[in-house]
Amino acid sequence: MALVLSERRWLRFGAFSAFYFAQGVPLGLLSVAIPAWLAEQHASVGEIALFTSVVSIPWAFKLVAGPFMDRITFLPMGFRRPWVLFAQGALTMSLLVLALTPFDVGAMAPLMVVGFVTNAFAATQDVAVDGMAIDVLPVDERGRANAFMAFGQVAGSSSFGALCGTLLPLVGLPLTASFCAATVAAIFLLVGIVRERPGERLLPWSSGVATVRAEVAAPSIVDNFHDLFRVLVMPMSVLLVVVSFAYFLRGGLVTPVYTAFAVQELGLSGARYSQFASGMSLAAAVIGVVIGPYIDRFGARRFLLGALVTGAVFHLAAGMLADDRGNLIVFGSLAIVVYVVGQVVFITVIALFMNLCWTKVAATQFAVYMALANVGIASGGLLFYPVADHLSFGQDFLIMAGLFTVSAAGLVFFKEGAHTQRLEELRARAVRK
Length: 433
What we know:
Layout: E1 3-4, H1 9-40, H2 45-60, H3 65-71, H4 81-98, H5 109-136, H6 142-193, E2 194-195, H7 221-232, H8 235-249, H9 251-265, H10 270-298, H11 300-321, H12 328-355, H13 362-384, H14 393-411, H15 416-432
Helix pairs in contact: 1-2, 1-5, 1-6, 1-9, 1-10, 2-5, 2-9, 2-13, 3-13, 4-5, 4-6, 5-13, 6-10, 6-12, 8-13, 8-14, 9-13, 9-14, 10-12, 11-12, 11-14
């Protein structure tokens, strides 16, 4: 039986979840386990912020891959699938290189360089998978699909965050990173056996034909960027970028602040914190899957606004309680709520950005949206680095509450229907040409 994404919903949900799981593997290692180990080795909040910011930079510049994916295709194997194969294979190799990299809190440069490269391939794979999802998923499945995809990434990052956080002090980086590479390689095999549409080739040398497409790639890179610019500057597109950028600035503070607070203030070990953070992330992802159908039913914007307001309130509470050692149980409860809020924001922002995309430049357009969000994360960390060691944990949480509030205020003015109408007019003009 041929496995074709366009023909089977269960395969779409399962395959995209697995592809996102592969992205989560290096995230768990680089953004959960290693920062926790650094905190346990008495690295400062600023040093942890620098490490996490540097290795996350490729996610901010993944838009570089988008124009090539929209322009350079091998349609007999699918519109995006060849790029997914390439990126998944390169991600496997980079994790093997990471296994050979020195791991020393006093000399983090080699680790940051290889971590940067590893995330570069993970980000490339993300662009390809997102482009494939936009192309293959029906609009009425995107809320549920994004819930499953977000679950896949969080399942990967949380399980490998906990696992790698436990393995690092026991067996070291070489065996830990090698296990990560083996997992990503297994998912690479899955990419090799599914097709986007019926009749396409599995491999370059196998039999198959390209599917006829209603929209074709622009005749040149210049035309591609012209089409991209026209859709990016639409008012609702610009507004949602601003909303998400403000929210993701907070992302640059989350890992160093939460990790240092848990390990250095509350006294958790690096492995214990990795397990806690991973467990909370996984639980939040499960909740995201449960509410996915309701996001499709009631609208992503409504859920996003509720999550942003909730996040602002609970970060404000965390800021007021962070310096009170007698309220640690209360603070732990607040942290759980914040994990759920973060997952809802992740799901709904992706769904809204997908709905803003024009199919013919979808890979580049969506990559720009996600890259700008990740620019926010990297920028937040780099801006936080110089002042991190001069602020209290309470002040850190209050800053995050302010960023939630800015995002929620901007979202009030977002009207998806207005963008949809403009996009239909743009498509109609393109067809007439």
